[in-house]
Design a protein that fits this description.
By secondary structure, the protein is of the alpha+beta class. The protein has a single domain, classed as Cytidine Deaminase, domain 2 (3-Layer(aba) Sandwich). It is built from four helices and five strands. α3 links the parallel β3 and β4. The longest helix is centred in the N-terminal third of the chain and has 12 residues. 39% of the residues are buried. The model has no long low-confidence stretch (mean pLDDT 96).
Length: 127
């Protein structure tokens, strides 16, 4: 699966987001080491702390399907370009990153930008 295809899947997932409070819809697509992809969207709650981000939703979808290593995540929001993961999602992605690292793919204008997770989360917390 190409990174462009992953962005397309993330865009499709964003259309399913439940964001009645912030109106900020996000979709994510994770690529597991197996080559399988899993999508997720954000879903909000009136108790904002209960909101689940698209990236964590997609990682959870991968986990329930037996995948524990993620090679890449594509994130899309119709609300903004360069929609990178929040801090909590960065830490969750770090927990499940592939031994070869993890690419974070975002859309800027009509192009994609690729970050490494290490760029976005330096000096990670690991046990």
């Amino acid at each position: 699966m190409t990174y462009e295809e992953m962005i397309k899947k993330a865009k499709e997932a964003s259309s399913k987001a439940y964001a009645p409070y912030s109106k900020f819809k996000v979709g994510a697509c994770v690529l597991a080491e197996s080559g399988n992809t899993y999508v997720g969207c954000n879903f909000e709650n009136s108790s904002y702390g209960m909101t689940i981000c698209a990236e964590r939703n997609a990682v959870g979808n991968a986990i329930v399907n037996g995948e524990l290593k993620i090679r890449a995540v594509a994130i899309y929001s119709p609300n903004m370009d360069n929609c990178t993961p929040c801090g909590a999602c960065r830490q969750v992605l770090n927990e499940f990153k592939s031994k070869n690292g993890l690419d974070v793919i975002v859309k800027i204008n009509d192009k994609i930008k690729i970050y490494t997770l290490e760029e976005l989360l330096p000096e990670t917390f690991n046990l």
